[in-house]
Each structure stands twice: as C-alpha cells, then as structure tokens.
Amino acid sequence: MQYLYDENGRRYLDAFGGIATVCCGHCHPEVVESIVNQTKRLQHSTVLYLNHAVADFAEALASKLPGDLKVVFFTNSGTEANELALMMARLYTGCQDVISLRNGYHGNAAGTMGSTAQSSYKFNVVQTGVHHALNPDQYRGVFGSDGLKYARDLDDLITYGTSGRVAGFIAEAIQGVGGILELAPGYLPAVYDRVRKAGGICIADEVQSGFARTGSHFWGFEGHGVVPDIVTMAKGIGNGIPLGAVVTTPEIAKVLTNRSYFNTFGGNPVCTAGGLAVLRVIEKEKLQQNAFSVGSYLKNRLTSLMEKHEIIGDVRGRGLMLGVELVTDRQSKTPAKVEILRVMEQMKEMGVLIGKGGFYGNVFRVTPPLCFTKEDADFLVDVMDYSMSKM
Fold first, then answer.
1. Which of 58, 141, 225, 363 matches a 20 to 30 Å C-alpha distance to 340?
2. pTM
3. How far is it, in rounded angstroms, from Cα 329 to Cα 8?
4. At which of 283, 318, 351 does a domain end?
5. Are 202 and 54 found together in one domain?
6. Which residues are listed as membrane-spanning (predicted)?
C-alpha cells in the first residue's frame, strides 16, 4: 500500500508514489486480482478485436468526465497520450502553432519535448511549432497570483507570434515536474476563451493531477472551472500498469478516421482491466475524500514548519499533490539545491521516500498513494522537521 520494503525487509513510507503514479497503493489486492484474472483469461488481442475489458473501462472512464468528452483512445504512457492529443489538435484545426507554458512538462518524445519548457528535459533536436507562454507562477512569477495579467501575455503571443490562428493550448492544472505549481486563479478560464477565439482547442494534461489526487476534484482542471476539449491522462490511471488515455469529443475524434490510426498495445485487456479496478477502488475506498482530508491536514502541518525552518520558502498544492520549496534566503528566493539533497538523504535514512522537482531541483514533491493516513502525514512531517534541524 503506502509502504515499500528493501531486500533486507526494512520498511519505508512512500511519499512519492512512483511519481504520482501509485494512487491506490502498491500491490492493492483488488487491482492485483483483476490484473491476474484478466492475464489468465486473455493477455493480448489488439483493439482490432473488441474485448469487454477495453470497452467497460472506456465507458467507466468517459463517465468521469464532463460535457461531450466521451471518446477514449488508449495509449501506453502520458508521453504517448500528449503526442496523440497534439496531433489531433493540429489535424482538427488545420494549424500547426501550439502554445504551452514555460516550466511545463508533457513528455520526452518529439512533439511533447517541443511543448515541454524546461531545458534539462530538452535534447538538441528539431522542435518546431510551439510557443511558450509566461508561466502563471504564484510564487516566483512577475504578476504573483494575478491570473488575468499572465493571460495577457498569451494574448500577445497569439497576436504577435502566430498568424492569429492556433492549433491549441496544452497545460497542467498543477505543474508536477515543474515543482507542484498551481496555476494562478483566473488564468485558465481567460486563456481557454482566448485560444478558442483563435480557432484552437484546449488540452488538459492530467497525467499527474488526475484521478482524485487533488482531493477537491477528480480532475485538476475542475478546480479552475473549465471544460477542456481534450484530456490526457496516465500514471494514476493504472496504479503502476503502463497505461494512458486521450479523451475527447466525437467531433474532434473524427479527424483520426481520415487515415489508419493504430496503437498495438493501447487498450491492452490486462492494462484496461487494471484501470477499471483502479476506478472502482477509488470510489469504494473513498480515496478522493481521503486525499482531501489527509492532504489538507498534511499541508497545514507542512506550513507550520515554515515558522521553525527559514529554509522553507513556500508550501503549495492541493490534496495529496503538495510541494515544499527550499530556499537559502526567503527574500531573494535563492534555490537551496544542495541543501535539499542532504535533507532527502537524511529522510531516506529515517525511512521516508520523497520526490524532488522544480526547475532548480529545490522542491520536495509530496505525491503519496491516496491511502495515506494522518499518522503517515505526522511521521513524514516529523522526519522532515528532524532532518532540517540536523543541517
């Protein structure tokens, strides 16, 4: 569940969840049973032959999304899902220009690397057709929490950097790799409106913030009061199984019927059986409610550490997708790159595994399995507190 064991049997509290992937808990018995039973029945057939495991999961998944988001394409990963979404946006609009956010991460293939806007994840290969808008970063951004001011930058980008028409806009509601950055309030509604006026479609990257992780909502975009045209997802969708998906409207989905679109393993019956089990466990065990209550408790406890440790510059996020940014000086916000490594190592020695991210590599990423308890939260905070005091 929320624990991992090394080869000597020592237990560790997993506060990273395989990069926000293990949502139900490691080796959850119901998910494992579903996967094993499907493996015994049929391991692979390709989507050329319809299988109940694929259809049942697609129907259940679509039911969790608003509006006309009813057509599901399965992939093997978040990178694949975002690649497909970007291609569909370009095909549907007839435009090539895509807008993404600075500091965002969307994958490591050709198209997604272009939309990713962090130099450490970009190889020196041709990347075209993508414009990176000012990031609505509430901690380091020039406009603080004023989402509308950041949105004006995107408006200028469309006006001056494109023909006035765009294929689409892709963004995470909470930037995961970027350091658990929640977009400034008011930003997404304003940007969605502007992008659609320019003929583009809006893509919500829910690879990390989806599947009840934010607690307050099932999907991260719901916290901003918007409805995307395409939603991409992976990670928590399968609790560790290689599985991703693109969900869109029937109208947009039609663009793939002009040619033969095919994914050999996308929609694999074993993976989709596991995905359906994940949805059932989330509902049965009320993991969204748990993410909200335990996440709120944990965020408050982490925030209280700021009074004790000057090295903590910011605590942010929602539910069980939280970030703790370390700085050597709160005024200048100088990233504590070396110090965070020392704290991480000390925490590991004390039995807690935690993630690290952000552009400067100075942000703790707290994304544990959604079965995390308040006792686990207390242990995590106590270990972090002690580790920081030892510096």
1. 141
2. 0.96
3. 40
4. 283
5. yes
6. none
The verdict on 50 and 121 lying in the same domain is: yes
54 domain residue, yes or no: yes
Q: 318: domain range?
A: 285-387
Query: Do 279 and 289 share a domain, yes or no?
Result: no
User: Of 283, 312, 330, which marks where a domain is finished?
Assistant: 283
Residue entry with tokens 């991480």: 344
Rounded CA-CA distance 8/26 in Å is 18
- Tokens of residue 83, six digits: 């690649």
Per-residue pLDDT of the chain (391 residues; tens, 9 = 90+): 999 999 999 999 999 999 999 999 999 999 999 999 999 999 998 888 888 999 999 999 999 999 999 999 999 999 999 999 999 999 999 999 999 999 999 999 988 999 999 999 999 998 889 999 999 999 999 999 999 999 999 999 999 999 999 999 999 999 999 999 999 999 999 999 999 999 999 999 999 999 999 999 999 999 999 999 999 999 999 999 999 999 999 999 999 999 988 899 999 999 999 999 999 999 999 999 999 999 999 999 999 999 999 999 999 999 999 999 999 999 999 999 999 999 999 999 999 999 999 999 999 999 999 999 999 999 999 999 999 998 7
